[in-house]
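Subject: Re: docking follow-up (zinc ion)

Dear J.,

Thanks for your patience while I sorted out the input files. As discussed at Tuesday's group meeting, I've set up the holo structure prediction with zinc ion included as the bound ligand rather than trying to dock it afterwards. The sequence and the ligand SMILES I used are pasted below, so you can double-check that they match what you have on your end before we go further.
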Amino acid sequence: MARERLYLFDTTLRDGAQMHGVDFTVTDKLRISKMLDELGVDYIEAGIPGANPTDTALFSENNKTKAKFTAFGMTKRAGRSASNDPALAGTLAAKADAVCLVAKASAFQVRVALEIKPEENLESIRDSVKAIIDSGREALIDCEHFFDGYKDNKEYALACAKAAYDSGARWVVLCDTNGGTLPNEIEVIVKDVVKMIPGDHVGIHAHNDTEQAVANSLAAVRAGARQIQGTLNGLGERTGNANLCSIIPTLLLKGDFADKFEIGVKPEQLTTLRHCAHSLDEILNRAPDKYAPYVGENAFATKAGIHASAILKDPTTYEHVSPESVGNRRKVMVSDQAGKSNVLAELERLGIVADKNDPRLSYLLEEVKQREAMGYSYESADASFALLARRMLGKVPDYFDVERFNVNVERRYNAKGELITVAEATVKVRVGGETLISAGEGNGPVNALDVALRKDLGKYQSYIAGLQLTDFRVRILDGGTGAVTRVLIESTDENGEQWTTVGVSPNIIDASFQALIDSITWKLLKSNAPV
Ligand SMILES: [Zn+2]
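The structure tokens for the complex came back this morning:
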């Protein structure tokens, strides 16, 4: 049976940009457009030309996306003709393949917010759609407040949708603008709409205020709608829009949808989904949600030993889809509850060859458990875990040995009379037969220690030249006077490789020192530095 085509309309760059804390530059928008285009969405709603300099600049260039590059705006104001409305003229002047205009579809909103007659609003919809078509672009109408409007005055909400369709709009998009509608209501209402407007002209635009934007979008599809509007990572006003990173894999991997519908995203493009989600976070300079379905770091993580051993036998025992299908990976966590199978799986992932009958594996497991009880956490500190494992299996050389270090922090007035805090560190290291003493200054004690330690490592200096500390996270465990500090350090090197190390101590300097030493040792090991 031929599958029906379902269209994906991405509004990350328009509705997503409405989210608190989200701000895109023109370059960001171009990068994200390219990414969305490669992913295979059908429409990219890129912004509101005329609303701000970024969007005006964006729509002044020809965009060469395969997806329909879409400009967003408002229907013409009542009391003037479409050709005489400067805002609409601005929208229509944009270089875009399609134009999506928002129109009120609720009698209450028309009366209270617009303060115009119901018929005037219908006329705005009709004239605006015609103006888009006359400009040679595909027309879409976002029926704002459609679901609330339908519940309040069904005839009027439907009349708005019908006015858009009858005037030639390619898509009539039903918006749950306030995000309060539930999936069962969406299904009933969309079923009613498609009696009047063919489903392949009906779209859904859901907001996540009850955490059901994805469910609402799928409910609308079940009821007959054939376009889904959403955003990457569910970005969007307030609590966000429908999350395409959850919707796309669901449509492709779940039989109920995959058997009936075809979308522009193909299985090989789906494998870039995790990358898309994380790249967007990188552009926004925020940490990806580890618990995000499908694309989160922990989406395929398992902790308990019995689960891990079953997963190694057959992944479908505890996984609803394969992590690789969305470009993610399975993660078996080494933790307190871990059995030997977890440790084995983790070693395998890190490329450490071990025989499962090696008695040293049991010692390693014991050591991990003991250290975790002390406050170490190896779930993100891969490099420290790999070092520990290799040490227990006798595979880490002693590159260098820190005999002692000294850190001083001083708060004083400088020559200009300003109060400053300076940190100085001295480190005595043995490398081979040589003893090296280095001093370093930093804006804090850990920084000074790092500077001193990496200033002179003798014959290893060239191996650590490209090493950089990119993140430093401190957590106080337990609390009270017996508190222990856990430090996680993230490092990168000249090849862009990244690793995390951990240190634990009641003393923050000592905890940081351990993590620093692990980071340097890991870099030497990775670089095959000679002993
Ligand atoms: Zn919206």
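A couple of observations from a first look. The pocket of zinc ion is lined by residues 15, 205, 207, 237, 241 (CB under 6 Å). The chain is about 40% helix and 20% strand.

Let me know if you'd like me to rerun anything.

Best regards,
T.
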